[in-house]
Amino acid sequence: MADAGSEPWSRSSANRSELRAGRFNRRQTPYQESRSRMLLLGSHLSVAGGLHLAVEAADELGIQALQVFTANQRQWQPKPPTEESIEAFKNALARSGVKFVVSHASYLINLATADPANRGKSIEAMRAEIDRCDALGIKHCVVHPGAHLGAGEEEAIARIADALDEIYEAIPKSKVRTLLETTAGQGTCIGHRFEHLGDIIKAANCKKHLGVCLDTCHMHAAGYDLCTEGGYEKTMRSLVRCVGKTRIRCIHLNDSKTPFASRKDRHEHIGQGTIGDDAFRFIINDPRFEGLPSILETEKGENEKAANLDKINLARLRKLAN
Ligand SMILES: [Zn+2]
Ligand SMILES: [Zn+2]
Q1: What is the number of the ligand closest to the CA of 220?
Q2: How far is the CA of 104 from the centre of ligand 1 (A)?
């Protein structure tokens, strides 16, 4: 039975005790043992034709985590899902091996803006997104914190925290946790320093509804070293210090087309970009993140040999598991 909102941390402790109890015979089941310590692999999949089709596509890929857009993310006021589509989605999920679903909020939303009209539209769109997640039983929603557009980071952080409070005050019973994503720091975007995310959470009253989503491409582009063992450890310690380990609920696994500290957000296939395999080996085997959903946001489709690109990226990640 799948649950769209399973808590990743609870599963990992069970796996650890199983390992301690020696339930996995090292010689017979090395594959299971290594898989049990891994992240919960997933992908952002298309909902074209219906949300339930993304669940079926996830099963075809053999993944247990799924990210979707719950509505057209290019529109301010997309149509909410119909009763039939909600039921089809929930039924597909109940039949599938998918254990964790996360939605990604619209890129139009800017909770940091000082412009009253844009702020109003952003708050309304985010509240509607959370409503859709609640209706679908999706318990996590990733959003980019926002861009300050010249007003400065401090003011933006306060505005984002206030906006999140306004949203959750309107829907106090929501079961959805909003995950603030680490960003590359393009333009005036907030979220390229871990401190930004920590400060937003500290300033907000709705803390119990907040968490963090890492993005490897964005962190690398923002100037956080993931590629050397020492650099990776320093980066992750800084992250845990700023936001707290239990806030980290989801990871986006993407390589980067642009160089380290380029502050540009361009995703590349795993191991094919400026990040490279080592960083993914570190993160996939990091016991701090054991069992966390990890979503590919790399280009979809097929390569010149008609092989599915997600399958290639997933195979590469699995190979990196110890
Ligand atoms: Zn994102
Ligand atoms: Zn991302």
Answers
A1: 2
A2: 7
Q: Which ligand is the nearest neighbour of the Cα of 73?
A: 1
Digitized pLDDT (tens) for each residue of the chain, 322 residues in all: 444 444 444 434 434 444 333 333 333 333 333 454 688 999 999 999 999 999 999 999 999 999 999 999 999 999 999 999 999 999 999 999 999 999 999 999 999 999 999 999 999 999 999 999 999 999 999 999 999 999 999 999 999 999 999 999 999 999 999 999 999 999 999 999 999 999 999 999 999 999 999 999 999 999 999 999 999 999 999 999 999 999 999 999 999 999 999 999 999 999 999 999 999 999 999 999 999 999 999 999 999 999 999 999 999 999 999 8
How distant, in Å, are the alpha carbons of 7, 83, 184, 255 from that of 315?
25, 36, 26, 15
Distance separating alpha carbons of residues 255 and 257, to the nearest angstrom: 7
Q: How far is the CA of 183 from the centre of ligand 1 (A)?
A: 8
Helix axes 309-320, 277-284, angle to 10 degrees: 70
> 115 alpha carbon to ligand 2 midpoint, in Å?
26
- In sequence order, which residues have a C-beta less than 8 Å from that of residue 128 and are 6 or more positions away? 77, 78, 80
**Packing angle, helices 229-243 and 277-284, rounded to 10:** 50
- Overall pTM > 0.85: yes
**Catalytic machinery residues:** 74, 104, 107, 144, 181, 215, 218, 252, 265, 267, 297
**Domain 8-320's class?**
alpha beta
The rounded Å distance from CA 179 to ligand 1 centre is 10
Are 53 and 306 within 8 A, CB to CB?
no
